[in-house]
Amino acid sequence: MDLRLKDVAELLNVSEATVRRWISDGKIPYYRLSHQYRFSRSEIENWVLSCKQGKEEFSPFNQEEADGVKERLGTHQFGLYRAVHKGGVYANIPGTTKEEVIRNAMQEIARDLHLDAEVITELLLDREKLMPTALSNGVGVPHTRDFLLQESFDVVVVVFPSVPIEYGALDGQPVHTLFFLFACDDKRHLHLLAKLAHLSSRPENLSYLRTHPTKQELLDYLKNWETGVKMKGSREAALV
Q: What is the per-residue pLDDT for 76?
């Protein structure tokens, strides 16, 4: 139970009032310890994924639940933009299965990030066996809980498979875009996962990803999108 209520609110970009409402409605996994709310990071991660895959009608990023969005400054402001800038964009990665695409992508990603391709690939595939990392709507976020970057920054690598692939998503849609997520600490990992879920919840973002933008084009788009989230959140937070 490593997260407190305010941690979850910050990492998921919502107000504490919104988290309390989710608790009251039984929508989010939590514990009570010494009269305080506590949360497991791994359970919150699975909850974000399962909400976006359609296991629940509820999603934390539905428009009606966005009454308390608060984009933080510091390491969280433009966090996705910076992570993709450190990572990059890889297009036309070959493969007809999830396993083939992950293996082929990691041959290039690991080389550029100076990682062991075989080790990271096996960790990623082990995570997929526990639960597919699809966010529905054709987006997947391959990641592993057993690896953190030994750096002071996070990395997100965007991969466009040569053809959409079956990914085990509960909405049944093949995946056309993969965000390989490598964070430098657990909380930033969860924050980026939540931000990617938010990004993939908007039809206009999904349409843009299907155009297979270049790295610079995607960075420009993400910077504008994260600016919009921040401005929108500031207006909505004032109403809570």
A: 61
Q: Dihedral sign for Cα 199, 204, 209, 210, please.
A: positive
* Residue 152 structure tokens: 């002071």
The b-or-e profile of 199-235 (16+ CB within 10 A means b, else e) is bbbeeebbebbeeebeeeebbebbbebbeebbeebee
- Return the CATH number at 137: 3.40.930.10
Long-range contacts of 101-104, Cβ-Cβ distance < 8 Å, separation of 24 or more: 101/159, 101/161, 101/165, 101/178, 102/128, 102/142, 102/178
- Say whether both 89 and 50 belong to one domain: no
Query: What pLDDT was estimated at residue 78?
Result: 85
Structure token pair of residue 86: 């450190």
pTM for the predicted model, two decimal places? 0.79
